[in-house]
Amino acid sequence: MGETTAEASSRSLMVDLIISLDGYASAEGWPGWWGLEGPEYLAWLEQEGEKDYTLLLGANTYRLMSGMSEEAGAEGSGFSEDEGASLTGLAAVPKVVFSSTLQAPLTWPNSELVAGDAVEAVTEMKRTGAGPWSTLGSLSLCRSLLSAGLVDRYRLVVFPVITGRTGRERIYDGYPDVSLELVDSRTFDGRLQLLEYVPTVLSGPPRRGPD
Using DSSP, how many helices (H) and how many strands (E) does the chain show? Predict the structure, then answer.
């Protein structure tokens, strides 16, 4: 018998990234989300946080996001109500953190530490079907999982900025060639573009068929 929809969902892994138009994850001197997050996007983030994803992340993203989540819960944090709700809500989400430098127990609630190889660990997680999973930041982790052919969905929210001079964390450096089949798209607040793809890792450029 073939795999059911529920079984397929329990083995599904999504890479989930925010990105400038020129391919950066952040930019020096710019605020978070490049200052362009709007109510529609933040409401969507909160809804996504209520889904049953387990988040996968590396040590650097863990340190950054756990700190932001704790800060957002403090009085006078400076975050808007919607921003604060999105960040503090991450504490309740199950998380798997891949790191050889962090020490257990992790202080951010619902965080499990995995010290071994991330690709091997996620391969086993997908085999046993304990998902679905989604990445949180963690560019090198995303690259490794995609290169290993473990990613079922590749989702971007594209922010309409070019940060060529100040951009940091180039997303696509070190990627293999990948073909992308568009399966979903959406616009938030009239300016942010969500694009969701099914990725296929290629061994090289596709061959052109006969004319």
Answer: 6, 10
Query: 93 with 110: CB under 8 angstroms?
Result: yes
**Whole-angstrom Cα distance, residue 50 to residue 27?**
28
CATH domain 5-201 topology = Dihydrofolate Reductase, subunit A (3.40.430)
State the amino acid at position 184 in one-letter form: D
- Domain range summary for the chain, segments of one domain joined by +: 5-201
Tokens 């998902």 found at:
131
Q: Return the structure tokens found at 121.
A: 């660990």
DSSP category for residue 89: G
Instruction: Give me the chain's average pLDDT, please.
Output: 88
CA–CA separation, 156 and 196 (whole Å): 6
The enclosing H or E element of 58 equals strand 54-58
With a CB cutoff of 8 Å and minimum separation 6, the contacts of 173 are none
DSSP letters for 11-52: T-EEEEEEEETTSEEEETTPPGGGG---HHHHHHHHHHHTS-
Render pLDDT for 71-119 as a digit per residue (tens, 0 to 9).
776 766 667 776 777 777 788 889 999 999 998 889 888 999 999 899 9
Q: With contact defined as beta carbons under 8 Å apart, do 98 and 114 qualify?
A: yes
Q: How far is CA 137 from the centre of its chain?
A: 5
